[in-house]
Amino acid sequence: MKFLKSDGIIDYSDSVYPSELVVISEDYKTPSSWKRSTIFGYSIAKGSYTYCGQVFPILENSFFSLPILTSIESVHFQVKGKVSLFVRHGFIGQTLFLGLAEQVGRLAYVDGCSDSLLVFPPRLGDASLNLLYLPEKTLQTAHSHPTIRLGMVIDGHGVAQTQDAEYPLSPGDAFSIAEHEIHRFKTTDSFLRVVAFHPDGDFGPTDNNHTMINRSYFKRGLFGQE
Questions:
Q1: Average pLDDT, stretch 181-196?
Q2: 219 lies in a domain?
């Protein structure tokens, strides 16, 4: 695992799903190299950002998703506190200006944890942003993922463990987990809330399985149709 306790970059641009984790706490303008990319952001501070010529607010514990189509586009952030930008290069995601995360997840996860999708994958296999909630006195089963994971602690305290080390976690700590890296999280007397970016996945709608086409029952031969 790699960690950022202050502003900085963890670069996975050479991975199978090119991504970066950028932590900012002051004014920041995205570089021109971020063309055909999508920024998945989470902020534990207040501020604003300018996107496509318009200014949008950033609230405490809010998230957003901003696609950048060309090299002449940029996003200008004005913040006074910790914001994590999870950048997926070569992917045009959904546009979401402001969302607020719930306290706990809506879906069951391992060992009594829960999670929710904050930014959904538009299609099967696309990137997503997720909320992970660990109650007090949780010890996760050790596990790994086939692709990288990028994240930030947004509330509570806990510990991240790998086979080589143990890392205390506090709000604002950002981290990355390498492909197939065995790890787990644990808590003692505090819950832990983490936002987690997945650059890919095996979940999402397809042309034959999505909310518009599902439960649509077609009647041929009516209204003069053949």
A1: 97
A2: no
